[in-house]
Amino acid sequence: MSGKYKRARFSARAASPARGGTIISASILIADDDPNILRALSFLMRREGHDVRTASGGRQALAMVAAAAPDLLLLDLMMPQGNGHEVCRALRADRAHDGVRIIMLTARGQDADQREGLALGADAYVTKPFAIDDVVNCVRRVLAQPRPTEVR
Predict the structure, then answer these.
(1) Which of 3, 80, 100, 109 has the greatest number of C-beta atoms within 10 Å?
(2) Is 120 part of a structural domain of the chain?
């Protein structure tokens, strides 16, 4: 694309008639050290029409983003080998990953924790335990807001 900015990669496709509306199909990386949460979120995001990969730690998540940047990262805050703050900080420090949207998922729901996550560059913050609809709606909302990335 010409110009200073290009749109993030994602495509819209028709939703099933039973669900109605339009789905934004995206590549999503879920990073969480709890296998039950990984399974549940993977199922949920696939049901919504997304391509899903998973990581169980911070270093693994960063390596997977470097190999193939997702459109969106669902990022647990407390993980081994690099917590969510460290992962978010590293991604936002690298302009090549400006297009990756980040939703932090955490049991730490204090206002100060949320402010810190958003200040590091997270696009949204969801506290655990969470309702399925809250996560789905948050993902839809964040994906609907294109993040322009600088073309170098």
Answers:
(1) 100
(2) yes
pLDDT in tens, 95-152: 999 899 999 998 876 777 777 878 889 999 998 888 888 999 999 999 998 765 544 3
Going 54 to 83 to 72 to 21, the CA torsion angle's sign is positive
Asked if residue 45 belongs to a domain, the reply is yes
Q: How many helices (H) and strands (E) does the chain have?
A: 5, 9
The contacts of residue 50 (CB under 8 Å, 6+ apart) are 25, 26, 27, 28, 139
Structural domain harbouring 37: 21-146
Q: How many domains does the chain have?
A: 1
Maximum C-alpha span of the chain: 43
Rounded CA gap, 54 and 42, in Å?
8
Indicate the pTM of the whole model.
Answer: 0.80
In a domain? residue 6: no
Q: Which alpha helices (DSSP H) does the chain contain, by range?
A: 35-47, 58-67, 84-93, 111-119, 132-144
